[in-house]
Model the fold of this input.
Amino acid sequence: MYEMVTTALSLGVIGKPGRRTFLIQGRDNANCITLKLEKEQVSALCDAIEAALDTLEEEIGPDPIEPKPTFILQNPVNPLFIVSDMRLGFDHSRELLFLQCDPFLEETEKSDEPDVKPVLFFVRRPPMRHLVTHGRSLLEGGRPSCDLCGNPKDTQHICPRLNGKHPRIA
Done:
């Protein structure tokens, strides 16, 4: 497992709505690790971080005040792996949140010793709070949703709620 105490943790997207690639990138003074996420993972991560921070605020007090970081992905943006599972926790001795990202492995790779190891990011609370806000703004920047079914709406969207009764596009 690769561990990194980050100086910056960013979420970002590459591409246009409907064809976006979601990325998470951790940086320290010497290294930069980029991983690929799915849109649903970004949403779940934002929810989990917010819940964890709210619990920590009740347990150990409010987040220290820090300026909002810039969420710019550093080049080159070459994902090390696609994230399958994530785990979020808090290291009380270091007073840092941690995010463990496990690589997606094909069935053939699971039996062998994988080449790519999980990544463990350690992050202070204030940057994680800002990461939630930034992540949600990225999620809202996609295609508009259909009013009837909630699926992304584009020129090819035929709403399933219409049950084929209406040829119109919702």
